[in-house]
Design goal:
The structure is a homodimer. By secondary structure, chain A is mainly α. In chain A, about 55% of the residues lie in helices and about 10% in strands. Chain A is globular and about 70 Å long. Chains A, B: It catalyses: an N-acyl-D-glucosamine = an N-acyl-D-mannosamine.
Amino acid sequence: MSGGLQVRQDMEKERETLRTWKQRMGQELDRVLAFWTEHSHDQEHGGFFTCLGRDGRVYDDLKYVWLQGRQVWMYCHLYRKFERFHHSELLDAAKAGGEFLLRYARVAPPGKKCAFVLTRDGRPVKVQRTIFSECFYTMAMNELWRVTGEVRYQSEAVEMMDQIVHWVREDPSGLGRPQLAGAPAAEPMAVPMMLLNLVEQLGEADAELAGRYAELGDWCALRILQHVQRDGQAVLENVSEDGKELSGCLGRHQNPGHALEAGWFLLRHSIQKGDPKLRAHIIDKFLLLPFRSGWDPEHGGLFYFQDADDLCPTQLEWAMKLWWPHSEAMIAFLMGYSDSGDPVLLHLFYQVAEYTFRQFRDPEYGEWFGYLNREGKVALTIKGGPFKGCFHVPRCLAMCEEMLGALLNRPAPAPAPGARSPPAVPARRGAE
Amino acid sequence: MSGGLQVRQDMEKERETLRTWKQRMGQELDRVLAFWTEHSHDQEHGGFFTCLGRDGRVYDDLKYVWLQGRQVWMYCHLYRKFERFHHSELLDAAKAGGEFLLRYARVAPPGKKCAFVLTRDGRPVKVQRTIFSECFYTMAMNELWRVTGEVRYQSEAVEMMDQIVHWVREDPSGLGRPQLAGAPAAEPMAVPMMLLNLVEQLGEADAELAGRYAELGDWCALRILQHVQRDGQAVLENVSEDGKELSGCLGRHQNPGHALEAGWFLLRHSIQKGDPKLRAHIIDKFLLLPFRSGWDPEHGGLFYFQDADDLCPTQLEWAMKLWWPHSEAMIAFLMGYSDSGDPVLLHLFYQVAEYTFRQFRDPEYGEWFGYLNREGKVALTIKGGPFKGCFHVPRCLAMCEEMLGALLNRPAPAPAPGARSPPAVPARRGAE
């Protein structure tokens, strides 16, 4: 067999693998969505039940605001991006969720602070002194505007965004956290990550808002990049506001899944900016590094938490394998590959996807388990709970389906002579 | 062999087992104390490091106020009750811990609210909107008064106690929790438990304070008893203030270790009151019931959390085995046996003690591991952390050593004809 024939056969085999994965992603997305549309809609009060047992039964009717906002976002996003989800059942449920949020999320309107969890009929149960309920509220409202065209949703989104930016960059006192003399001025990576995600959400195909938030987006990227510490050898979850390592467990805390999620947020941002050096840095520090240190060599899967000095974390769940870091890793590696063409990233995508589909999927009742022990055994049988809703799994499946489709639609190239090994699918800028 | 001879031989064998356990408890207590005196004293600032790795190395220098108060209490208590611990090293360390608390625990003196965690040099890092830092502060101050005779410690204890009682029974607004329309008026069992423990602490050999808090003690006992729900078939961790089951996960939440700890608090209280019917009820509902439902039939050990409907709890660590429920169970069963003479309780004590000494002890570096996975494998190698300090293990060992000593000092009885099986050691009232 000639060398040229061999290369073509390898490429065809690789395309076949991509096609198979695209099909699996699509089928799984349908199954996962069916689980949520069947079990989570509260027909009486609007909004969504998210405390769902293995078979979908509601085991608690509390409504967690993060998950309400995320499900509205997810439904609208699928409705908008996928023809097969462009149907009124999904849109109506999203609108009912949006109306529930509009009516009940804020603890003391017209104040913008939102609750963390509400009763089934919308009375506040708990408030967090963070920005996250408000961020998911904003994502929901912006997507609702995109699919309905109703300006009131967009006004809500933009006003809430302004409030969040004010809390983060000007004055956090409205969040209600006490100022304590010993509390370090720590920045959790979650804050600039979440804001960058909002900048990208609001700026999508919207030149005015993209311009308005351009400086904010760059600020977020810079702040996230400050979490790369120790001469580039570790991504730390908390750093000081001027980008220094903090002392103790707080400073050494690592969250590989978060680093990978930040990685694809940053990569998407830098693809838009067209900065190849930055993109290589992001792939190195936010994709490869967290995977190398965070993947369990013994049992597979990503650890939930780690300590940068390899000391024992104090979180009881540190060695557990959670669904969302694996969802984020799949997105990150496929996006990294789409951007760079580096086959190492494609094979990491396969490695994570194989582990994830094997360990987290529930072939019997649909959706994924969320919480495995270190060895990969299901530790909690719930499908939804206070922190797991209709979001990470379908977002991952939808984005992977789209990215795999885009890869398959690229024209087959001649093998690139300079590549480490012939990339099965060539690099392309701005794959998404 | 005559029946009488057989009974005497069985009794001697049982006494031999009790002697062996007493010796193990004493030796282990010495070893555990040595670990803390060697590794945890902050010679510079006073107080204690509690974030200690497997070998005792300090991995974080934050000072958790619960654990500062508990260690002061533990040191004083041992100094006061055990001749071999009646030495100035322990007393000086306790006083240094007490002075650290006096100087730094309160967030905004003269206000009484205490921090949850302080920097090494005493600046507040976090405040919890609960009563527990203040409760351990009170325990520490009362014991310091008992061993030093210095009245300023007792004034601190009594003033703080009054503040706590005010927060619990009159007006919780000083704790800083927001009033939210959807938040159920739930009573965590921890609150009356902790208060009952304080009543017993302050009232020990102190007729004036015992009288002053007598009504409070009865109120606490009544409130704890309200957590027995479902026709006596379950102890629920949270109930409404008028003693009804709450809806959802919050209402179904169970914590077997907490029920067992409440059990021996209640038992101690009711032994003082001399109410045999109540004591039998406590043994049945707070000792036997939580053990029966909370002991893992597959791998041994007590589950950390459970759901009263046998649904999957939402806490990631629900199936883990923690050191403190096992410490509390050992105390509870030995106290129950000392009071009732029921050999079932003695054998449960042996069962828990054997599991605990086998699984939690670290023969290499001393002290106990705190956190095992469901199967009993060490999940966290730390010996101390934000919630584990010098308290549950030595309190358990000290109390068991004392109770075993008291059992061995009882005169050997003639077999009681009415007992289910001849109790190896007879029932005695007020064993402690």
